Amino acid sequence: MTFARGVLLLGMAVATVLTFVLPPAKGFREPDLARIIFFHLPCAFMTSGLVFLAAWQGIQVLRTRSPQLDVRHAATVELGALFGALTMATGILFSKVQWGTWWQSDPRQTSFLMVLLILAVGLILRAAIGDERRRAAVSASYSVAALVPAIYLIFVYPRLPHITKESFHPSNTIAQGGFDSAYRLGLISVFAMLVGLAVLLYRMRVRVGQLELQWEVTNGNVDDFGHGAADSRLVRPVSVRPERGP
Amino acid sequence: MNPSWAVFRKELRTESRARNGFFTAGMFSVLAVVAIGLSSFGQRPSESLAAGMLSVTLLFSAVVALPRTFLVEEEQGTFSLLRLMASPEAIFTGKALYNFFQMMLTSVVLGVLFSGLVGRPVEVAWLYGLGLGVQAASLSSAMSLCSAMVMGASNRWILAGAMAGALLLPQIALGVGLFRVCFGEGSLVGGIQCLVGLAGYAVALGGLGPVLAGAVWRSE
């Protein structure tokens, strides 16, 4: 595991250096500053992939009712929100350097903000429900239902004719060969490193979740904060104030 | 009798006795349209702006009125009794049908008032009527699903609105595209595409609703 982390760290360093030494892409107002795409585009791909993975895991949670699977599902939802936030942040930086404003109200920018809001509501929903079984079922159902608007916002809406006409988003630059093979190599390298980083974070989050589950199995009977009622035979010491007389 | 139909009739009967759900939604719609009319006094909002205002007013009317059918059962402690009478899927379908019925009435009232008070005449009346109907179906299916999911959560009324707001963001975009054409901007083909998109959205969420609500309620 330590060796794998070392390789990942080295790979990330190499990929980051590569993004700075490659020649700039054509067709941008500030070609040198357009290098932020090396991180923006893979983050967007990761978010889309994690939204689909969360929906798939949601179906599995609803089928099996397994707490272990719910831990995995929660990790995927959190990672999806993290990569969504990174996509948004890098997109806003790109907007500032290429279009001159932090927020352009571009349809692509707005549609991705909607995706991010959908992911954020998933996190809020998990936090709002105390009972584990119900939280798992509701969160899984939400991930499945959220796939409908996510597919529309990620794949359909940005490709509508009037949106592609109005949008400043450089999808056309990419489609018209603005990226040469070296640039594509940089993109693939960063994407591979981000996948490695996501796997590492996912495993760590799942491990934490499993430890929490173990702790609840061991100590569940003495915990009454929304994790089931305490065993009725258990007597706990309580502090009782002496009543004051009149 | 079909259990879904029985639940629908039960909701209708409850509403006919108390009348608070429809009147709340109706009053909200009237107030929203009057407020919009007041704020745009002496001006004629553009087609896109009018379409946006109508879509947002419809959304908030749904968010205010529709969760009540689900959440009131839990607050009154009658949900467990209802579960004994019918399957989760039948309960959800009956309540979602009632929500659709209520939202249809609200949409008709709101649509007529909006076209009369806001000073933007409807150019394509048939598309406007169909659009209001499909919007009502889409809003009621999404709101029913969200309300069913948040039963038992803390801050469930606000949470239902937040969830539905997130799930309905594409629906608002499609609604604006559709009503813009009804008010005379853009091509009819584009409006029909938006109508089909909205119908697809309503069918997708309406089909998922009973399955997901059943899965959540069975987890208790």
How do the strands and helices of this protein lay out in sequence?
The complex is a heterodimer of chains A (246) and B (220).
Chain A lengths: L1 H20 L15 H28 L2 H33 L7 H22 L3 H25 L4 H6 L4 H5 L5 H39 L27
Chain B lengths: L2 H16 L1 H20 L7 H19 L2 H9 L2 H7 L2 H30 L7 H26 L5 H12 L1 H14 L5 H31 L2
Give a description of the structure:
The complex is a heterodimer of chains A (246) and B (220). Chain A starts with a helix and ends in a 27-residue tail after the last helix. Chain A has helices spanning 2-21, 37-64, 67-99, 107-128, 132-156, 161-166, 171-175, 181-219. Chain A is mostly helical and 246 residues long. Chain A has one domain. Chain B has 220 residues and is mainly alpha-helical. In chain B, 84% of the residues lie in helices and 0% in strands. The mean pLDDT of chain B is 86. The A-B interface holds A 62, 65, 114, 117-118, 120-121, 124-125, 128-131, 133-134, 136-138, 140-142, 144-146, 148-149, 152-153, 156-157, 162 and B 145, 149-150, 152-156, 159, 162-163, 165-171, 173, 190, 197, 201, 204-205, 208, 212-213, 215-216, 218-220.
Question: Secondary-structure element order of chain A, as H and E?
Answer: HHHHHHHH
Q: How many angstroms does the end-to-end distance of chain A come to?
A: 69 Å
Round the Cα radius of gyration of chain A to an integer and report it: 23 Å
Question: DSSP strand (E) fraction of chain A?
Answer: under 5%
How many individual β-strands of chain A? 0
Shape by Cα distribution of chain B: globular
What features would you highlight for this structure?
heterodimer, A: 246 residues, mainly alpha, 8 helices, B: 220 residues, globular
How would you summarize this macromolecular structure in one to three sentences?
The complex is a heterodimer of chains A (246) and B (220). With 246 residues, chain A is mainly α.
